[in-house]
Specification:
The complex is a heterodimer of chains A (271) and B (347). By secondary structure, chain A is mainly alpha-helical. Chain A has two domains: 52 residues, no CATH class; 210 residues, Orthogonal Bundle (MetI-like fold). Chain A contains twelve helices and two strands, in the order αααααααααααββα. The longest helix of chain A is centred in the C-terminal third of the chain and has 35 residues. The radius of gyration of chain A is 23 Å and the shape is globular. The relative contact order of chain A is 0.14. By secondary structure, chain B is an alpha+beta fold. Chain B has two domains: 232 residues, Rossmann fold, CATH 3.40.50; 91 residues, OB fold (Dihydrolipoamide Acetyltransferase, E2P). Chain B contains eight helices and 18 strands. Classes of the chains: A mainly alpha (271), B alpha+beta (347). At the A-B interface, α8 and α9 of A face β6 and α2 of B.
Chain lengths: 271, 347
C-alpha cells in the first residue's frame, strides 16, 4: 500500500515536471534569446549575455505609454466584468432564481460564438460612438463578453449557504446590503481569480486593440510588439526583449493574487 | 435586558403551494402571546414551510397572517419584528461575534440617520445580549473559531438583540451533540423567560417539543392536526397519528371494539401477578417479554403476543421483568383511548 502510494506520487511528479518543462521552454528560450547579441540571435552556442536589446527597446520604443494603455484597458475590462459578474450572479441566484436557467443557457451558448464573428459590427458601433483611439473604445465593447465571468461567479454564489443571506434579510438588510455585506465578502477569492484571469486575457488581446486603437500613442503592448516585425526585416532581439519586459506586469499581478486564485479553485475542487 | 412585547400570531387559512405540491394546506393556528410554541411533525409535514412563511422569507400562496391583529401577510421580512435562528445558524463568516450580533442594529442606524440607535446604544445592547448568552469573552472571535454551542448562542444573540416580539427557531438543537443539547435546552428556556417574546420552535423531535414548550402544535401533510398544551396532547391525542407520534414509547394500539381501535400508554398498563384476575371492565393484554430496557427509574418492556407488540412501562419498586417471561397486564377503562375506523378519537 505504502510503496504503491509512493510510485503513484513519483509518476505524478514526473508528468507534472514534464509539463512544466514544456511550458517553460518557450519562455526560457525567449528570455535567453533576448540576452544574446544581435549577431548571434539564432545561435545555440554560449555567448556572453548582453543587454543591448533592452537598452534599444527602452530608448526607442514607448514602453511606458504602451504598458500604461494596456494596463488601463486590462484593469478597466477586469473591473467592469467583475462588477457585471457580481451583480448578475447575485441577481440570478438570489433575486430571480426562476430566470437563472434560461439566462445561463443563453450565456453558455454565447461562449461558443467566436468574438471575431462579431468584430465588424462592434467596430462600426464603437467608431460611430467616436471611440476610435480611446479608452472607452478599448474597454466598453469588451464588457459585452462578460458571460464567462458571470458563469463562474454564479457557481460561487450558488455554493454559498443561502441562510446567511436570509438571516441578513431578517436583520432588515435590503438586497443591495445583502450583496455588499454578506455575499461579496464571501466571494473575495472568486472575484480575485476572475479579475486576474480577465486581466491577463485582455492584456494579451491583439485583434480588438489593433482595430480600435491603431494610433501608436493610444495602442497596447501587443500591437506595439508587432512593430519589431516589419517588411524590411525582423528585429528578434528587440521583440523578445520587449516581450520579456512587458510580461513583467502580468507576472506581478499573478504573484500578488496567486494565493487567492489558488484558494478560489481549491474551494471549487473541494466541493 | 428589558423584555420585549410579545405578539399573538394568528394564521387564517394559510396556504403555500410549490407548483402542484401543497406544502401548507389552509392552516388555522393561534399562537398565544409570550408562549413557547413547539411545532412538531415528521419530515415533509410543512413545519419548516410554516416557519418560512411566518418569517416572511417566502410569501404565502393564500390566507393571512396576523400579529396582534395587524396583517403581516405582505409585510417584507425585515419589517415584521420577527427574528429567526437558522438550523445551520447562518452566521456571517467574515464578521466577528460582536459584528454578527450588531449587524441589524447597525443597518438600522445607517438607514434612519439619527432616528436609529447610536453607537453607544448599539455597543451597550450588544454587550447586554452577549452577557445574557455568556458570550462576553468571545466578542472578537470569528465564527470559525467557535464551538458548535457557542455558534448557536451567537445566532440566538443576533436574533434577540433587536428585541423582536416573535422569535422563530428552526431545529435550534439539531446541530449540537447530545451532551450539549440538555444545557442548550435549558438555555433556550431561560432566554425565553428573560426576553418574554413569543417563541415558535420547529423540531422533528417530539421529546424536545414536549419538554420545552407550553403550546404544542402537531403537523402532518401540511395541516395542523392538534394544537394544545403538551399535557393535553399527550393525555387526549385527537387521532391515532398524534397518539403514536407524541410520547415515547408510542401509544399501544390494538383493534376493538367493533371496527374501532383501542389505545393505552405504556405506563397505564399494570402488571398482574401470576394467577391474578384483571379487575372487571379492565382491558387484559397478554404476551411475552421480548426486550427489557432498563432506564434507571423505570423499565420499558416490549412484549409480543403473536400478532402485535405492546410496551409496558414499570416504575421502580416493582419486580423487574426479564426477556422471555410471560406478561399479563390490565388497563383501567378510564385510561383507554378510543379511536374510530378512520383513526379519529371518540373517547
Amino acid at each position: 500500500m505504502r510503496s504503491q502510494l509512493t510510485w503513484r506520487v513519483l509518476l505524478w511528479h514526473l508528468v507534472l515536471s514534464a509539463t512544466v518543462v514544456v511550458l517553460l521552454f518557450a519562455v526560457a528560450w525567449a528570455v535567453l534569446t533576448s540576452l544574446r547579441p544581435a549577431s548571434a540571435v539564432f545561435g545555440l552556442e554560449p555567448v556572453a549575455p548582453t543587454l543591448e536589446h533592452y537598452a534599444r527597446v527602452l530608448q526607442r520604443w514607448p514602453v511606458a505609454t504602451l504598458v500604461g494603455n494596456t494596463f488601463v484597458m486590462a484593469a478597466g475590462v477586469a473591473l467592469g466584468q467583475v462588477v457585471i459578474g457580481c451583480l448578475a450572479a447575485y441577481a440570478l441566484v438570489h433575486l430571480a432564481p426562476r430566470g437563472r436557467r434560461p439566462v445561463l443557457a443563453l450565456m453558455t451558448v454565447s461562449l461558443a460564438i467566436p468574438p471575431q464573428a462579431l468584430i465588424v459590427p462592434q467596430y462600426l458601433m464603437a467608431t460611430r460612438l467616436g471611440w476610435l483611439n480611446s479608452e472607452a473604445g478599448l474597454i466598453v465593447p469588451q464588457l459585452g463578453s462578460s458571460a464567462l465571468a458571470v458563469l463562474v461567479l454564479v457557481q460561487h454564489v450558488r455554493a454559498l449557504p443561502v441562510s446567511a443571506a436570509e438571516a441578513a434579510r431578517l436583520d432588515g438588510a435590503l438586497p443591495r446590503e445583502v450583496l455588499w455585506h454578506v455575499v461579496l465578502p464571501a466571494l473575495r477569492p472568486a472575484i480575485a481569480a476572475v479579475a486576474v484571469l480577465v486581466f491577463i486575457t485582455t492584456w494579451n488581446d491583439y485583434l480588438w486593440p489593433l482595430l480600435i486603437a491603431p494610433r501608436a500613442a493610444d495602442t497596447t503592448v501587443q500591437i506595439g510588439l508587432s512593430q519589431f516585425t516589419t517588411a524590411e526585416g525582423n528585429d528578434y532581439g528587440g521583440l523578445l526583449a520587449a516581450a520579456t519586459l512587458t510580461s513583467l506586469p502580468i507576472l506581478l499581478v499573478y504573484l500578488v493574487a496567486s494565493r487567492q486564485i489558488t484558494e478560489a479553485f481549491m474551494q471549487r475542487g473541494a466541493r | 435586558m428589558s423584555t420585549a412585547p410579545a405578539s399573538r400570531l394568528q394564521m387564517q387559512e394559510l396556504t403555500k403551494r410549490y407548483g402542484t405540491t401543497t406544502a401548507l394546506d389552509r392552516v388555522d393556528l393561534d399562537v398565544p402571546p409570550g408562549s413557547f410554541t413547539a411545532v412538531v411533525g415528521p419530515s415533509g409535514c410543512g413545519k419548516t414551510t410554516l416557519l418560512r412563511l411566518l418569517s416572511g422569507l417566502e410569501p404565502a400562496t393564500s390566507g393571512a397572517l396576523l400579529a396582534d391583529g395587524r396583517d403581516l401577510t405582505r409585510v417584507p421580512a425585515g419589517e415584521r419584528g420577527v427574528a429567526m435562528v437558522f438550523q445551520d445558524y447562518a452566521l456571517y463568516p467574515h464578521m466577528d461575534v460582536a459584528a454578527n450580533i450588531s449587524f441589524g442594529l447597525r443597518l438600522q442606524a445607517r438607514r434612519r440617520r439619527g432616528a436609529g440607535p447610536d453607537r453607544a446604544t448599539i455597543a451597550r445592547r450588544t454587550r447586554e445580549v452577549a452577557e445574557l448568552l455568556e458570550l462576553g469573552e468571545l466578542l472578537h472571535r470569528r465564527p470559525d473559531q467557535l464551538s458548535g454551542g457557542q455558534r448557536q448562542r451567537v445566532a440566538l444573540a443576533r436574533a434577540v438583540v433587536r428585541r423582536p416580539p416573535v422569535l422563530l427557531l428552526d431545529e435550534p438543537l439539531a446541530a449540537l451533540d447530545a451532551q450539549l443539547r440538555a444545557s442548550a435546552r435549558a438555555g433556550l428556556q431561560r432566554l425565553h423567560r428573560e426576553i418574554g417574546a413569543t417563541v415558535v420552535m420547529v423540531t422533528h423531535d417530539q421529546h424536545e417539543a414536549m419538554t420545552m414548550s407550553d403550546h404544542l402544535v402537531v403537523m402532518k401533510d401540511g395541516r395542523v392536526v392538534q394544537a394544545a398544551r403538551p399535557q393535553e396532547v399527550y393525555a387526549a391525542p385527537v387521532d391515532r397519528f398524534v397518539a403514536t407520534f407524541v410520547g415515547s414509547p408510542p401509544m399501544n394500539l390494538r383493534p376493538g371494539p367493533g371496527d374501532g381501535v383501542l389505545g393505552w400508554r405504556a405506563e397505564d398498563g399494570r402488571l398482574l401477578a401470576p394467577g391474578e384476575e384483571a379487575p372487571a371492565g379492565h382491558l387484559l393484554v397478554e404476551g411475552t417479554a421480548e426486550l427489557c430496557e432498563f432506564t434507571g427509574s423505570a423499565q420499558d418492556v416490549v412484549c409480543h403476543d403473536g400478532t402485535t407488540s405492546f410496551t409496558l412501562r414499570q416504575q421502580s419498586g416493582t419486580r423487574w421483568l426479564q426477556a422471555g417471561e410471560p406478561v399479563r397486564c390490565a388497563v383501567a377503562p378510564q385510561r383507554l383511548h378510543h379511536f374510530d375506523r378512520d383513526g379519529r378519537r371518540t373517547g
